[in-house]
C-alpha cells in the first residue's frame, strides 16, 4: 500500500516535470500544454539542447522513401517545398504553418529527445538592433550573417548544413549551403506599430493579409538568403522560431475574441495574383509603407536565385485536382481544408489547429 502510494507519487513527479514542456496529445483534449517561450528566455542549457536536437534532425536518416531526402531535416524541407504554392498567400497560410510547427516539434521530441520549451523569436525586441540579436549569437544561437561572395553562413552550429533539394524538388548536384544576407531595413517591418496594426484587424481575412505581409515578410527578408526564399526557407533553423512568433501573433489575435475566433477562417485557396493583392508579393514590404527606407526596395533573389513571387511562383499554378483535394468544396478556405505534411504526420484539417489549446496543438505561449 505504502509502496503503491510512493510509486504513484514518483510517477506524478515525473509526469509533472515532463509536463512542463511536453504536451499530452493522447486521447481527447489537451491536458498538459507544450510551452513555447522566447529564445531570449531559455536557459543556456535549454538553448544548447535545442541546437543539439536540431543538429540531430539534420543527422538522422529520413523515415520515408522521398527520393533525395537523406535526413529528417530534408523531409521537413521537402514538405514545405512541395506545396509552397498552396500554403502562401492563401487562407490556409496561418493554419498550415501552425500545423508545420507541430510536425517539426513532434520530430524534435520523438526522434531527437528534445524535452525543453519550444522557442520563438521575439522579433519586436530585436527590431532596432538585428545584428546583435541573441538568436544570431555564434556560441549560444544559430550563427551569424553569411560571408563571402555566396553569403554562406560561416560560423555557429550550422556551418556544415547542406541542402539536398532545389526549389523545383530536383536534387542539387552539389548541395548548397545555408545562406544569410541580413537586412536591417527589411527587418523594420517587424515593428511594434505593424504588429499592433495587425492585431487590430477585425476579420480573419484582414489579419492574415496583415501578418503575412508585414511581420512575416520582415523576418524572412531581415535574415535574407535561404530565409528569403519562399520554398527553401525552412532549411534555415531560424524559420521555426520566426513562424512560432508569427503563430503567436495569430493566437493573440484569436484570443481577443474567444471562442468566436476559433472558427474564423477564410481567404482563397488559390494564391491571389501578386499584382492584385496588397499582400501578394514579398516586395510589398518594400513598395508599401511598412518599411521605412528605399534602400530595402530591391531584396529580390536570395538563395537559389528565386524570384520571390509568392503566388504561383510561375511554375505550378494550382490545378483543379489540387483544389479539390483541399476538401473545401470550393475556392474559399474553410475549416474542412486539409493540411498535409508529406506523410511526416497524418493529414489534419484546419479545424484541428484552430485552437492552440486543442488536442492537436496543445501548446501555450509564455
Ligand atoms: C550536445 O551534444 C554533444 C555531442 O553530441 C554532447 O556532448 C552535449 O552534452 C550535448 N549538450 C546538450 C546540452 O545536450
Ligand atoms: C502610405 O501612407 C500614406 C499616408 O499614411 C497613405 O495615404 C498611403 O495610402 C499609404 N500607401 C500604402 C501603399 O500603403
Ligand atoms: C544581399 O542583399 C543585397 C541587398 O540587400 C543584394 O544586393 C545582394 O545581391 C544580396 N546578396 C546575396 C548573395 O544574396
Ligand atoms: C474557382 O477558381 C477557378 C480558377 O480561378 C475559377 O475558374 C472558378 O470559377 C472558381 N470557382 C468559384 C466557385 O469561384
Ligand atoms: C492527405 O492530403 C493530401 C493533400 O491534400 C492528399 O493528397 C492525400 O490523399 C491525403 N491523405 C489521406 C490519407 O487522406
Ligand atoms: Cu512557409
Summarize the structure.
With 366 residues, the chain is mostly helical.
Question: What do these coordinates show?
Answer:
The chain is mainly alpha-helical and 366 residues long. The chain has one domain (3-365): Orthogonal Bundle (di-copper center containing domain from catechol oxidase), CATH 1.10.1280.10. 36% of the residues lie in helices and 8% in strands. It is built from 12 helices and 9 strands. The chain has helices at residues 2-19, 44-59, 72-81, 84-87, 93-112, 184-187, 192-199, 204-223, 238-255, 284-287, 320-325, 350-353; strands at residues 34-38, 118-120, 146-147, 152-153, 162-165, 171-177, 338-339, 348-349, 363-365. The strands form 4 sheets. A 3-stranded parallel beta sheet has the order 2-1-9. Strands 3-4 form a two-stranded antiparallel sheet. Strand 5 (162-165) and strand 6 form a beta hairpin. Helix 2 crosses helix 5, helix 7 packs antiparallel against helix 8 and helix 8 (204-223) runs antiparallel to helix 9. The chain starts with a helix and ends with a strand. Mean pLDDT is 84; it is low at 1-22, 273-294 and 297-316. Copper (II) ion binds next to loops.
Q: How many domains comprise the coordinates?
A: 1
The computed structural class is mainly alpha
> Remind me, CATH topology?
di-copper center containing domain from catechol oxidase
Helix content: 25-40%
Overall average pLDDT: 84
Strand order of the largest sheet: 2-1-9
Task: Tell me the name of the CATH homologous superfamily.
Answer: Di-copper center containing domain from catechol oxidase
Bound molecules: 2-acetamido-2-deoxy-beta-D-glucopyranose, copper (II) ion
Inertia-based shape: globular
> Treating each run of at least 4 consecutive H or I residues as one helix, how many helices?
12
The ordered string of helix (H) and strand (E) elements is HEHHHHEEEEEHHHHHHEEHE
By CATH reckoning, the class would read Mainly Alpha
Protein name: Tyrosinase copper-binding domain-containing protein
Region (Disordered): 269-314
Organism: Podospora didyma
Signal peptide: 1-19
Amino acid at each position: 500500500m505504502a509502496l503503491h502510494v510512493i510509486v504513484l507519487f514518483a510517477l506524478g513527479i515525473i509526469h509533472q516535470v515532463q509536463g512542463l514542456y511536453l504536451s499530452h496529445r493522447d486521447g481527447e483534449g489537451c491536458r498538459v500544454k507544450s510551452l513555447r517561450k522566447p529564445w531570449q528566455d531559455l536557459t543556456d542549457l535549454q538553448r544548447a539542447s535545442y541546437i543539439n536536437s536540431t543538429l540531430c534532425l539534420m543527422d538522422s536518416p529520413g523515415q520515408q522513401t522521398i527520393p533525395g531526402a537523406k535526413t529528417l531535416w530534408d523531409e521537413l524541407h521537402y514538405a514545405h517545398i512541395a506545396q509552397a504554392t498552396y500554403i502562401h498567400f492563401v487562407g490556409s497560410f496561418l493554419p498550415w504553418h501552425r500545423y508545420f510547427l507541430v510536425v517539426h516539434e513532434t520530430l524534435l521530441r520523438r526522434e531527437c529527445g528534445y524535452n525543453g520549451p519550444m522557442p520563438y523569436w521575439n522579433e519586436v525586441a530585436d527590431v532596432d538592433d538585428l545584428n546583435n540579436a541573441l538568436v544570431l549569437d555564434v556560441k549560444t544561437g544559430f550563427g551569424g550573417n553569411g560571408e563571402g561572395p555566396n553569403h554562406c553562413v560561416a560560423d555557429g552550429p550550422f556551418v556544415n548544413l547542406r541542402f539536398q533539394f532545389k526549389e523545383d524538388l530536383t536534387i542539387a548536384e552539389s548541395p548548397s549551403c545555408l545562406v544569410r544576407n541580413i537586412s536591417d531595413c527589411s527587418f523594420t517591418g517587424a515593428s511594434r506599430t505593424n504588429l499592433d496594426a495587425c492585431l487590430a484587424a477585425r476579420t480573419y481575412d484582414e489579419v492574415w493579409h496583415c501578418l503575412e505581409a508585414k511581420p512575416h515578410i520582415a523576418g524572412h527578408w531581415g535574415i535574407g538568403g535561404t530565409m528569403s526564399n519562399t520554398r527553401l526557407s525552412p532549411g534555415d533553423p531560424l524559420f521555426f522560431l520566426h513562424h512560432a512568433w508569427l503563430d503567436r501573433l495569430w493566437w493573440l489575435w484569436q484570443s481577443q475574441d474567444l471562442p468566436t475566433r476559433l472558427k474564423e477562417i477564410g481567404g482563397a485557396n488559390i494564391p491571389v495574383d501578386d499584382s492584385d493583392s496588397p499582400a501578394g508579393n514579398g516586395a510589398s514590404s518594400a513598395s508599401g509603407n511598412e518599411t521605412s527606407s528605399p534602400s530595402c526596395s530591391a531584396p529580390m533573389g536570395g538563395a537559389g536565385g528565386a524570384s520571390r513571387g509568392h503566388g504561383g511562383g510561375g511554375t505550378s499554378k494550382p490545378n483543379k485536382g489540387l483544389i479539390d483535394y483541399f476538401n473545401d468544396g470550393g475556392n474559399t478556405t474553410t475549416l474542412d481544408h486539409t493540411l498535409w505534411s508529406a506523410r511526416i504526420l497524418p493529414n489534419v484539417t484546419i479545424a484541428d489547429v484552430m485552437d492552440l489549446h486543442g488536442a492537436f496543438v496543445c501548446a501555450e505561449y509564455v
